[in-house]
Amino acid sequence: MTTNGATSDRQPGKLRLGVYWASSCGGCDISLLEIGEHLLELIEVADIVFWPCVADFKYRTVADYPDGYIDVCLFNGGIRSSEQEQIARLVRRKSRTLVAYGACAMDGGIPALANLESTREIFDAVYHSNPSLQNPGHVEPQTHWATPHGDLELPRLYPQVLRLADIVEVDYQMPGCPPVGTQVWKVLQAVVAGEVPARNAAVRVGCDNRSVCDECHREKRKVRIKEFKRPHLAIPEPNWCLLEQGFVCLGASTRSGCGALCPKAELTCRGCYGSAGLATDQGTAMLSALGSVMDAVTEDRANELVGQIADPTGTFYRFSLASSALKAHRKP
Amino acid sequence: MSQADLTPVPVETPTSQPWEPRIIAFLCYWCSYTGADNAGTSRLKYPANVDIIRVMCSGRIDPDLIMTAFAQGADGVMVCGCHIGDCHYIAGNHKTMTRMPLLSRVLQDFGIEPERFVHEWVSAAEGDKFAKLVRQVTEQVRQVGRLDWPGRMYRRGVGHGEDLQPWGDQA
Ligand code: SF4
Ligand code: SF4
Ligand code: FES
User: Fold this and answer.
1) Which H helix or E strand runs over A95?
2) What is the DSSP letter of A114?
3) Which of A95, A167, A228, A266 could form a disulfide with A308 if both were Cys (CB 3.0 to 4.6 A apart)?
């Protein structure tokens, strides 16, 4: 434990907890409820001082807190707009410990898949070309709008999703889409017990240090992939490694900690716990692993197999595009 | 890892010199590097745009290295290994053979043109093939132009907060 450990400079009294959602789906907020009856234990020792999902906290209230007032802030969601960046900077100042909570805050998550599109294409899809839309006036949200009662300002959409750590210093990263309940409770218990230093350099918590394959029960028969299959078009044989059967399972490049939830339910791991080991780019790690298990000894066969893989970029980087080396499509 | 990304990447200052493609070539030790050597000892001319990185086997070229080369400013990347069947480690290049076409698809999804990424087999005796390949790749990269990934990402505001609205904490 460091000198500025959790217990040393913390205000006496109950632990002050903050939760914020940026570019996320809300699943992370719900995942906190997954700790079930432990919630009552948590409320015994901790006060919620900021959690827009469950109560009406104004940004102004948070701005009026003294710096470092929030003991632990669980920040979920990536940074996609100027508002989210603003709040990220605000809660960083107001929190002693800032946790990038969940895949989006840590690696960009699903929203970062839109980094492969330009802001223009996103606006076109959302406001114009979507078949369920009627927008004859071609209305789009504006950042400035003059009304008779004064000028209105709206947050600006950024050209790509950024991670929380791209904007502010992050003390802990907690992977998962969303983090699983047992891991959430383990981390919260450690926080409550003061077992974790308040500041740390983006250490990953709520996960283990191996890969999902390591905790997967499915039998590895050490055979090479003969054909790639898509999960909605074929039924996997139970208890046999999904990757060996030809389903693109990201277990090999994904950090363990979830208990291999998806392979247990006959689904491929989609990689929500982020990159495993020392790799920072989960997608190329998977690409590399996949390349060594294909059953091909000629170039034609290799090209045939590669051609069977549907949407490699979206699959390998499903949750971590903002952490990839390239981070986004190059179009403006 | 993440904090390093916070350091702003300097935007390349325009110089009076015209742009020249910068190409990184990963060559395996046993065939392709010797092939490049062969081009040198045979006094074959090829453009100086290529920076050669020697690795033991093309199967050891992690796709991450190629991504990183582009992310750090390369305009093109070449990967060369022994012909299929000739790998010093028997099946190292079988992995290259499956990884590289897959990587090529991924790179295109990020907007990196296929002209910028070339993988080819070059044996120790194929100095002329190597020289020709470098000439061809340099020319096709020149055609598609400068990539400048770090500058592009910097100008998009990646990792150096821009345009903050003065509301929220002062509101
Ligand atoms: S690839 Fe998937 S199914 Fe196979 S061992 Fe790994 S996690 Fe389990
Ligand atoms: S198996 Fe993979 S996708 Fe499923 S919860 Fe675990 S890490 Fe996430
Ligand atoms: S040693 Fe040349 S490709 Fe393996």
Assistant:
1) strand A95-101
2) G
3) A228
Q: Which residues contact B18 (CB under 8 A, 6 or more apart)?
A: none
Q: What is the ipTM of this complex?
A: 0.91
Query: Ligand 2 atom closest to Cα of A254?
Result: 7
Contacts of A305 in chain B (CB under 8 A): 98
SS3 sequence, B13-60? CCCCCCCCCCEEEEEECCCHHHHHHHHHHCCCCCCCCEEEEEECCHHH
pLDDT digits (tens, 9 = 90+) for A282-306: 999 999 999 999 999 999 999 999 9
Atom 4, ligand 1: residue with shortest CA distance: A241
DSSP class of residue A211? B
Q: Residue B32: helix, strand or coil by DSSP?
A: helix
pLDDT tens-place string over residues B22-71: 999 999 999 999 999 999 999 999 999 999 999 999 999 999 999 999 99
How is residue A66 annotated by DSSP? P
Residue type (1 letter), A277: G
Sign of dihedral through CA atoms A79, A81, A82, A83? negative
The predicted model scores a pTM of: 0.90
Cα dihedral sign, A219-A220-A224-A225: positive
The answer to whether the CB of A321 falls within 8 A of the CB of A115 is yes
Subunit contact A202:B2, Cβ cutoff 8 A: yes
Q: Is the dihedral of CA A52, A29, A21, A110 positive or negative?
A: negative
Nearest atom within ligand 3 for CA of residue B56: 1
Per-residue pLDDT tens digits for A63-117: 999 999 999 999 999 999 989 999 999 999 999 999 999 999 999 999 999 999 9
Instruction: Supply B115's token pair.
Output: 């002209």
